[in-house]
Amino acid sequence: MASHRYLLITLGVLLLTASAWADNSHRIYGKVTTEDGDVYEGLIRWDKNEASWVDMLDGNKELDPDNFEGEKLSRKRESKIRIFGLTVGETSGSWNPSSAQTGIRFGHLRRLEPLDDDMALLILKSGQKVEMENSSTDLGEGIREIIIEDVDEGEVELVWRDIESIEFADTDGGMESNFGERLYGTLTTRRGETFSGFVGWDVDEVFGRDVLDGEEDEDSRKIRFDKIAAIERYSSSGATVHLKSGDKIVLRGTNDVDDDNRGIIIADPAFGQVVVDWDEFDRLDFSTPDGKVRYANFDGGRPIEGTVFTEDGEKYTGRIRWDNDEEYTWEILDGDSRDTQYDIEFGAIKKIEKRSHSSSIVTLRDGREFRLRGSNDVDGDNKGIIVLDGAKKVVEIDWDDFASVEFK
């Protein structure tokens, strides 16, 4: 009898260990050195909602819009005025932005060093150095929390001014996290589109032990995400929560479950992320990732290269600066489509085709296509496509003259 009891206890310990020590190879991991000289190493939760290598660090980067690889660019911008396809006039002006909004997935970072209360130096795996200024709460004194799950110390929460540097590194994934497993699933929109990836619910909830808030028949409910199988839109003011136990409840009354929701993020390892508004959201089914996402999957970026085709049939091949600010494959193309925001890494893009003055078709390397608008990356507010060919000749192409680009 004692041997049977010992066997049951052993099996129970093994099951608990297996559930606690899930594969966390996708998690941000690094060594943090503080201003006081303390060193902490472990899994990192950044600003509440960034926890995996696929998640994005947002900010603004400094620009030199007058030069591209040492070659002088024109400050003049000409734009054609067209009516029913006919050119009836031109306008001209100049632009000289000193910075541009950008983002980078954490997997491309080798090191981060705070420079002041709202700026950091990023050193990428490629060796490139990028100074990035805060544009939200991802950098600087406004960051909401930086938590390191140190192997010896447990959870250590730091503020921005505590940090001297962070060295990012790979992990074999066999590490326990007090937050539970990272949320992952497949979101279906009201138009029937599906996106699979790591989840940020209401932008902020990203782990199994995070809580979904709502009211059921005027009773307050707090449900851990690891108890939920699926969440389905019930109306503009409510959601049906499908529990793993088989029960279903309708929740209302908070921005977790109504149209005050700030958006559902799906971070797709293949291309970047989408942020889906409540009006477009239909259902999210939670699951486990299909494959591993590791730090080694990210290369730190390289110059964008390809061939640009004009409306007049000319083509130019070489290094490309898109919208006169994105020139590396780690950088992000933005666009919207019916209450869904797309943030697509240039390295994942195969082709961009202008479809009208206000929209483009973006084709990914995996074959998916999205028609996007609402951003100067994909519409007539584009600040110019710059090509530097092998002979160091700079060609500046206005959006009205642009037809398509095929990336190397």
Q: Can you describe this structure?
A:
With 408 residues, this protein is mostly beta strands. Helices cover 5% and strands 49% of the residues. It is built from 1 helix and 34 strands. The strands form 6 sheets. The protein has a 10-stranded antiparallel β-sheet, with no helix packed on it. It has a 10-stranded antiparallel β-sheet with strand order 21-20-19-24-15-16-22-23-28-27, with no helix packed on it. The chain has an 8-stranded antiparallel β-sheet with strand order 31-30-29-34-25-26-32-33, with no helix packed on it. Strand 10 (119-124) and strand 11 (129-133) form a beta hairpin. The longest helix has 19 residues, at 2-20. It is globular and about 65 Å long. The protein starts with a helix and ends with a strand. Residues 1-21 and 79-85 have low confidence and may be disordered.
